[in-house]
Write a structure and sequence with these properties.
This protein is α+β, with helices and mostly antiparallel strands. It folds into two domains: 25-114, 2-Layer Sandwich (GMP Synthetase, Chain A, domain 3), CATH 3.30.300.70; 125-184, SH3 type barrels. It is built from three helices and ten strands, in the order ββαββαβαβββββ. It has helices at residues 36-51, 85-102, 125-130, and strands at residues 2-4, 10-12, 58-67, 70-78, 109-114, 135-144, 147-157, 161-166, 171-175, 179-184. Helix 1 crosses helix 2. The longest helix is centred in the middle third of the chain and has 18 residues, at 85-102. Mean pLDDT is 82; it is low at 11-34.
């Protein structure tokens, strides 16, 4: 319906909307300016990285995020001989006790502890050295030789980069800073 605004012009009112801001628990900042997700993840990382070596395990990745079913805290652990259900159970119990005492998460969440799987991520020199001779999939930040994804066997690695024996038999060296993502491949 047309109406006259304060300037005397004829205007048409189409509709109205209400706006609100909804802050989720993981999105707030703490007193140091960190998001709560980052803060929780770092506190958990500190605890887990001190716990796992005594169990003969290592931390591969932590995920703390909101998903369709709610908040999920996911720990991926690994060991020289792989991970058993007993490993996951022990780590889960220790994590539950730690989280109960520290009271880091003030809302409902699910805790999941598992192995990274057969196609585990490769994140640093130690990972590449550990899995030398295994097949890997490397995704680069920028195009090299007209492609961003390379698959091959992991060769020598050092602080600066890794060597990959490609499926066509050629060797190619990649600097660590070129690599966006890397994982073992079947």
């Amino acid at each position: 319906m047309p109406y006259h605004n304060p300037a005397g012009e004829v205007a048409l009112k189409v509709g109205s909307a209400r706006f609100f801001l909804c802050l989720f628990p993981g999105d707030r900042n703490n007193e140091y300016g960190e998001s709560m997700s980052d803060f929780v993840t770092e506190r958990i990382r500190d605890f887990v990285e001190s716990l796992l070596p005594s169990m003969g395990l290592e931390l591969v990745e932590i995920q703390y995020r909101q998903e369709n079913q709610g908040w999920v805290l996911r720990l991926f652990i690994d060991g020289p001989e792989g991970v058993t259900i007993d490993h996951c159970t022990k780590v889960s119990r220790e994590m539950s006790d730690f989280l109960d005492v520290e009271d880091l998460i003030n809302h409902a969440y699910s805790l999941e502890v598992s192995s990274p799987g057969l196609e585990r991520p490769l994140r640093n020199k130690a990972d590449f050295q550990r899995f030398a001779g295994k097949k890997a999939r490397i995704k680069l930040r920028d195009v090299v030789a007209e492609q961003k994804v390379f698959i091959g066997l992991i060769g020598a690695s050092d602080d600066e980069g890794i060597e990959l024996l490609l499926e066509d038999g050629t060797k190619r060296r990649f600097l660590m800073e070129q690599i966006r993502k890397a994982r073992l491949s079947l």
